[in-house]
Design brief:
about 220 residues, globular, two-stranded antiparallel sheet, mainly alpha, single chain
């Protein structure tokens, strides 16, 4: 489940920032991001976040930690549990009170993207070439990059990384240097976790990660 929780965090942050909008269920007023093309029948781990939220609220005696913070920390701890790096997670994010499937469809990278589209997608979130965010499901390693070098990846945006100059150099470098990949990965995760944090009245700390507080 570790890789799935990391993907949830990624897909959350790339849609209006790290605000736990991906966790909201469909309602008459919320167009759930769970139903977006890249997430439908793919995104999972929601029940794990729910369990963590319940336990944190019990310890704190009330909801004081946002679902957005819980998802961010869960992604970090998942990577570490799979043998990857750890990093400092700044806390204080708040939860959105809405979701947008259309923006999720537009912002989450599609498997069919070519290299220019993929780079542009990451640049729109403030990243350069090309912050890698895809460990193998059961361990954190550089197999993704060794597979690329061996041409064992079949999705368009995978093999596209070998075509571009800078990205091809990164693939070659990371395929033989686990330590450098881990260091750069951690830096990228810190940067991603800081995308558009919510403040003010247009956000909240949810009592239940699946629904906004006004639904109670």
């Amino acid at each position: 489940m570790g890789a799935s929780l990391l993907c949830l965090h990624f897909d959350d942050c790339f849609v209006n920032g790290c605000d736990a909008s991906i966790l909201l269920d469909q309602t008459s007023t919320i167009d759930s991001e769970k139903n977006a093309g890249p997430n439908a029948n793919s995104a999972r781990g929601f029940e794990v976040i729910d369990k963590i939220k319940d336990e944190v609220d019990k310890v704190c005696d009330r909801p004081v930690v946002s679902c957005a913070d819980i998802l961010t920390v869960a992604a970090r701890d998942s990577v570490f549990a799979l043998g990857g790096p750890s990093w400092k997670v700044e806390l204080g994010r708040r939860d959105s009170i809405t979701a947008c499937r259309a923006i999720a469809d537009a912002n989450i990278p599609a498997p069919s993207m070519d290299l220019p589209a993929l780079i542009k997608n990451f640049e729109n979130q403030g990243f350069d070439e090309l912050a890698p965010l895809d460990p193998t499901p059961s361990s954190f390693d550089v197999k993704y990059f060794t597979d690329l070098v061996s041409k064992k990846r079949i999705l368009n945006f995978d093999q596209a990384l070998l075509i571009g100059g800078e990205t091809a150099e990164l693939v070659s470098k990371y395929s033989g240097n686990h330590e450098e990949f881990s260091e750069d990965f951690a830096k990228s995760m810190i940067k991603m976790g800081d995308i558009k944090p919510l403040t003010g009245n247009m956000c909240e700390i949810r009592n239940n990660c699946l629904k906004v507080n006004s639904q109670y």
